[in-house]
């Protein structure tokens, strides 16, 4: 079932900005969805939690197996400090991708690194961030959905986090992953790839599709990075709390009217809900993100100002929806008076 929010996102405003305004950052300097976007989403979700639920979340995160690095320079006994810990937890799964303590479990040539205290594994869990599947419009055979992926892992993360019988460090580890993957599920290009005759195995969610941004003379960037950076590029000089407030104003209907979109089922039905979130992203990817201008010669397609305006609007709405859904999920699993 397509929600009213998905329809609104597909018809997002496309009023172009003045040419080049806010778009002159070089492609290599793009701020990713996994930094500004994830942190702003986490801030919006955290502030929506009821005090009792927030206290449980705070207590768990203080038990994180990587707490020494997560809390560096932060007083986690203060309200401001533990809120910052939640924001840092939202990007921790991305940070470990370049951390030598962790290993790439999908590479048969890579040996596991030593298991550190409190961790269930030192694997980077790269497959937990997205869905490996594709669509095609030129007759190329699409790539089938593979597991594990962000949808299949989310229910088990929620179960492990909310099970009081588990060690606190394990529950906190799963909490940080849960915060992150809810955000990832709402990035359209984490939901699907495109298979073509040029890329029959798919383009890795737009990572192998190159485009040019307006206002940049010659640089090009992959499409996935463009969609990662919609919020970060426009807000790179804004305090994260201001970005979170901007996201809170992004949805086309008030949050108290989103009863259906924020319903979190118990048990196995949570997998179907996560699949719905991923399918929303896949639809936006197919019909908006991949709706690129035609190429001019051999150069990558140059995105129009209208495409940029629509992408930014959709990103704000998706991150806001992710924040409200994350808060609802934490309330459902850790809530109570």
What would you say this structure looks like, in words?
The protein has 337 residues and is mainly α. It has 12 helices and 4 strands; from the N terminus they run αααααβααβββααααα. A two-stranded parallel ribbon has the order 1-2. A two-stranded antiparallel ribbon has the order 3-4. Helix 2 crosses helix 10 (240-248) and helix 2 packs across helix 12. Mean pLDDT is 88; it is low at 16-33.
- Element pattern in H and E: HHHHHEHHEEEHHHHH
- N- to C-terminal separation? 33 Å
Mean pLDDT: 88
Task: Please work out how many helical segments DSSP would assign.
Answer: 12
Question: What percent of residues adopt helix (DSSP H or I)?
Answer: 40-55%
- Tell me how many strands there are: 4
% residues in beta strands: under 5%
Overall outline: globular
Largest sheet: 2 strands, parallel
Tell me the Rg in angstroms. 20 Å
Regions with pLDDT < 50 over 5+ consecutive residues? 16-33
Structural class label: mainly alpha
Strand and helix map with partners:
Layout (H helix, E strand, L loop, with lengths): L3 H7 L22 H16 L2 H11 L5 H4 L8 H17 L38 E2 L14 H13 L5 H18 L7 E2 L15 E2 L9 E2 H6 L1 H5 L5 H9 L20 H21 L15 H30 L3
Parallel strand pairs: 1-2
Antiparallel strand pairs: 3-4
Helix pairs in contact: 2-5, 2-7, 2-10, 2-12, 5-7, 6-7, 6-11, 7-12, 10-12
Summarize the entry for a quick read.
This protein has about 325 residues and is mainly alpha-helical. The chain has helices at about 5-10, 35-50, 50-60, 65-70, 80-95, 150-160, 170-185, 225-230, 230-235, 240-250, 270-290, 305-335, and strands spanning about 135, 195, 210, 220.
């Amino acid at each position: 079932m397509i929600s009213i929010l998905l329809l609104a996102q597909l018809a997002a405003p496309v009023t172009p900005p003045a040419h080049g305004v806010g778009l002159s950052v070089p492609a290599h300097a793009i701020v990713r969805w996994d930094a500004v976007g994830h942190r702003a989403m986490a801030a919006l979700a955290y502030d929506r939690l009821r005090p009792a639920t927030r206290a449980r979340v705070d207590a768990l995160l203080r038990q994180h197996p990587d707490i020494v690095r997560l809390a560096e320079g932060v007083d986690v006994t203060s309200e401001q400090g533990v809120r910052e810990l939640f924001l840092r937890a939202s990007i921790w799964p991305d940070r470990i991708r370049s951390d030598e303590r962790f290993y790439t479990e999908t590479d048969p040539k890579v040996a596991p690194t030593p298991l550190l205290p409190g961790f269930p594994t030192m694997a980077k869990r790269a497959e937990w961030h997205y869905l490996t599947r594709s669509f095609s419009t030129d007759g190329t055979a699409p790539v089938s959905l593979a597991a594990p992926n962000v949808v299949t892992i989310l229910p088990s993360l929620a179960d492990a986090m909310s099970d009081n019988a588990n060690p606190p460090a394990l529950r906190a580890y799963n909490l940080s992953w849960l915060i992150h993957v809810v955000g990832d599920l709402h990035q359209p290009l984490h939901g699907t790839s495109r298979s073509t005759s040029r890329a029959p195995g798919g383009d890795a969610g737009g990572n192998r599709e190159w485009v040019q941004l307006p206002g940049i003379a010659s640089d090009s960037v992959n499409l996935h990075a463009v969609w990662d950076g919609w919020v970060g590029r426009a807000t790179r000089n804004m305090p994260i709390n201001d970005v979170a407030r901007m996201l809170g104003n992004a949805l086309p209907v008030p949050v108290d009217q989103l009863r259906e979109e924020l319903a979190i089922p118990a048990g196995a039905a949570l997998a179907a809900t996560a699949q719905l979130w991923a399918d929303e992203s896949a639809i936006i990817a197919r019909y908006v993100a991949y709706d690129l201008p035609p190429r001019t010669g051999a150069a990558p397609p140059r995105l129009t100002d209208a495409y940029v305006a629509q992408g930014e609007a959709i990103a704000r709405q998706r991150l806001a929806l992710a924040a409200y859904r994350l808060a609802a999920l934490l309330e459902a699993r850790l809530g109570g008076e």
